[in-house]
Amino acid sequence: MVEKAVQKTIGWLGNRWAVPVILFLSLCTHLPYMQMPATGHHVWRQCNTLALARNYYEEDMNILKPRIDKRFNTPGITGPEFPAQSWLFAAGYKIFGYSESLHRWICWLFLALAVTGMVRLARLYQLPEWQAALTGAAIAFIPETYYQSINAVPDMLSLAAMLWGWGFGIHWLKKQNWGSLLATAACMALAGAVKMQFLMAGFPLMLGFLRQKNWKQPKMLLQGFVLAALAGGATLGWYAFAGVLTAKYQLHEFVHAMRHARNLEEAAFILGKTVISDIPETFVGYAFLPLLLFAIPAIWPGRRQWGDWKVYAILCAVFYLLVQYQFWHHGYYALVFMPLFAYMVGKGAGYLAQTRAAWLVLWLWLAPAWAWFRMHDNWSPEGSRISLEFLTTPGDTYKKYSDPSVRWIVGPDKTGCVNFYYLHAKGFPWYHEDEAGELFTRFYAQGARGVITDNDSLLFKKLPAGLKAIPIQGRTTQTFTWYRLEKTGQGQ
């Protein structure tokens, strides 16, 4: 009976409708959350991305002028990763009207591209159709990608672009034509400019280039240089430009740096967390973990195509060590590992299907349930990590209260962006409750003329001599109050 169930599973995954059904199941399990604003783990990162999008929509659609809300007394222009995702959100607002949830639908389309790109890549690496479909299911239902697939973090767009670029690259190595080369360069340039680590797929392509001894062919040598120049040049060029934008107004909101563990003790702690908790729970998931583990004996004897994946695995390990500190709190950094994990899931399932442990293939049916169970709390009010008021109060209320011509001091909010985004405010960050009153004096001197806070008593306790905060009539909600900030004696 078990053997029959395994064969039916393999047969179903080999059906041409398998991938559309996987995507349909992904969409259906996300539907209850698609109308929600940015919430959950990494909500600060989501709000930064969405603030860029809203500022494109409201101020200027020039993609070369990305603006944040925490802008002090500047125009707010700074240098993030290439803001293609934010710009696409803004384009969506232009077409459909502004919405705090539209981004979830656009992000899910990036997931669909990543799933289909992964399936195509697996087929190019000679996996049978059922195993290739399983790699797509892994991209859809590994808990980390399941959660990030409707979140406003740019990594899913990069993942999709990289997977399609990798596939176009393999096609280019086979056909040696300019069309495939340019498609590869466009996808890889987008992937790298949005998130630099997603250029890693270029190394397996380089390995294939060397394996075929293409440097001996003048045409392929020229095309190889063009590909490297376009993909690498676009990536390095954007980050150089981002550095210029950041330096111009000194708005260091986006950190383009590698944060490794600060000492061996911290490195061991983060590695232990990654291996014991993150990998089984979210980076792979318990449903896929047996399939992935059984891929290891299929890898090491190694056929030729596994050389590419071994290189990619080594690069993932190096990247992990270089930015290990980021993995302590930022699960979305693991999205660059997903092609490797997904391929190993497909490969391991093929290996298992030929052994006495074939019944483990049936575990994959648990993947959607585990992904939902592990991640759904992030979309609940209790796990939203934002003021519950933001889930129920229309955004138009805040937009009406937060006059865009006024520079507001917003806080206390340790993220420096979440309250700015939801309150539709621009101005100065009040991060911590223990910050001194001198902060208000300095910000007033720089142009702050209002305060928005959910801690009125702390505001009056912190206000320095010489400044007063006057409640603005009619501008209060259940949690927040808007104040006009003036010098003592002004208006008398």
How is this structure best described in words?
The protein has 492 residues and is of the alpha/beta class. The protein has two domains: 2-378, no CATH class; 388-487. Helix content is 56%, strand content 6%. It is built from 21 helices and five strands. The protein has helices spanning 2-13, 18-30, 43-58, 84-96, 102-124, 129-141, 143-148, 155-175, 178-194, 202-211, 218-249, 264-283, 289-293, 296-299, 306-322, 338-352, 367-375, 395-401, 418-423, 438-445, 456-462; strands at 407-410, 427-429, 448-453, 467-476, 481-487. Strands 2-1-3-5-4 form a five-stranded mixed β-sheet, with helices on one face. A hairpin with a 4-residue loop joins strand 4 (467-476) and strand 5. Helix 3 (43-58) packs across helix 4 and helix 9 (178-194) runs parallel beside helix 11 (218-249). It is globular. The protein starts with a helix and ends in a 5-residue tail after the last strand. The model has no long low-confidence stretch (mean pLDDT 91).
In short:
This protein is an alpha/beta fold and 492 residues long. Helix content is 56%, strand content 6%. It folds into two domains: 2-378, no CATH class; 388-487.
